[in-house]
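hi support,

uploading two proteins for the ticket. first:
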Amino acid sequence: MTLELLRDLSHARLPLTVRTAQDIDKLRVLRAAGHVAAMLPATGAQGDRLFARVLAITGRGRRALDGEAADSDPPAQIAARQPDRHG
């Protein structure tokens, strides 16, 4: 999942070099969404030229992570308190 990569990047020391085609594809999505600042390889790059450099997570990316954390938290339990009738 693309947000998993964003979460991993948020814990990494940037700038960071990414070399797998799968993660580079995810970075393309993250950059298009405005979540990261990254230098990406040209389409069709292979071998030693297949790498990307993540420079930073943008404010939009941080907000996406904050929203993901809020979505994954358990819902707040609101208990209606009834008067104690036993005493």
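and the second one:
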Amino acid sequence: MLAPGDTQVVAVVEQPRPTRYRRGRAPNFRLGVLGAVLLFVGLAVLSSLAVPPFRSADESAHGGYALAIAHGRIPSQYERVPAQIPGQRQPTHVYTTVHPPLYHALIAGPLLLGIEVGKPLLGLHLARIESALFSAVTVALTAVLAGMLLGRRRTEAVVAAATMATLGIFVLSSSLVYNDSLATLLSVAVLLGTLAVLRQGLRTSGCVLLILAAAASMAVRASNAEVVAMAGIGLLAAGAIHARNRWIGVAQGIGWSAAMGVACFAAAGWFYLLNQARYGHLTGWVSIAYDPHSPMYDAHGYPYPGGGLSFLLSPDSYLRLARDTYGDLLGVDRVLPWSNPVTVAGLVVVWSLAALGALWWLRQRRRLGPTRARQALVALVALHGVACLLYVAWWVQAGGYPHIRYLFPALPVVAVILARAVVGLPGGRWWAVLVVTVQLVLALGYLAKLPAQWTGESIWGVYPAALGKAGVPLPALVTVGLLLIVICGWLLCARAILTRQPTRSMISSETS
């Protein structure tokens, strides 16, 4: 109570004003994502031009399959088709015909065009660049995934995209005629569609786009069945979470899931039934591992005597996957004798910063009241990563080698986690630039090492020599131009990362 004549003193606490951003701030973010795409495209085109034609038996098989598709037929995996492009295995075992033909139909055009005009190697390089463009879209979608999971944390989105763009094995595999590039793109698209449905509810437009992405993904690779199944679970969860009447929402989710199943069967079911009729298995891979008549029989053997379970429980499995992610630069190498210490130092820097960032975030974060939608988002993303790892374990159990390429659909999630951990450190934007720079150096080392080993050229002359063999005029100038694209991409990424961006989260806004 105040006595007469007393005055009341009111403490005015000045609320922090929201940071005002100039109109150019959002374009900085967009330019950062564009920089990550340019960074990837420059590296991938360099790789596609420098790797000798059909160095990999898989690329030879994919190329033979695509040319068979161009002539209107799907050969059996037991067939041997004649080589039509210089460097292709003669004859080519088209064991990749156990995959659905969507990817091969898309790359058949450049390959056939090169043969028709009398420049088959040009057609091969165009097909490689087309594959790289699929992965360039994946790099951009990684930024979208970061925005979906972290909200308007634009710095983390640029860092995540740049991290994907500078993974050496991702760049190399994407620049070859492999269906991993399109399979990864569509897998990430299905993941994004599922997260959008969980966040916004069962809107017709979102559900239709998700169904189309799921159907296309099943028409590229059977391994995408895990993300399609996860999308079905997401539709059910979205109906239960967002509908006023939970049971009506679940019924709507079941209806959309059934529609997705029908679309997937219409797009690719006929092909899996063809595999069943030919090989006794929907995917055909079991016959590859165990059928003595298969060209891949006993080609790999078991890397782990205990099969898939041994793979999951062995620390060596994860060390091997980490080594393959950075291009196997950890071994002693005659071309780049300094690659071992440089790579070890780079990995220590990148993942130490990630670990410190994660610990800092756990220490600084405020307790949130998690919503059911947020819990479902986290659960589905975790399920996606586990499912990708289980697929690799299944492949090991079937007798195959655990290629890191089979984990590509999970790498964008890892990139987002890495970006959030590093940017969360004090001065995190500078640490993020360091991480992207280290990854770029490792990627350049990887892309210089392998062609130099395969061609016998020096690391300084391998790219001009490869461009000259491909018939590209002024190969030295073109090499410099591609390197300038890489540098410009890095500069755009660095500028966007160092520019302060809005950090209000759309999904998990932090409250006291």
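thanks. also noticed: The beta strands are 80-81, 92-93.
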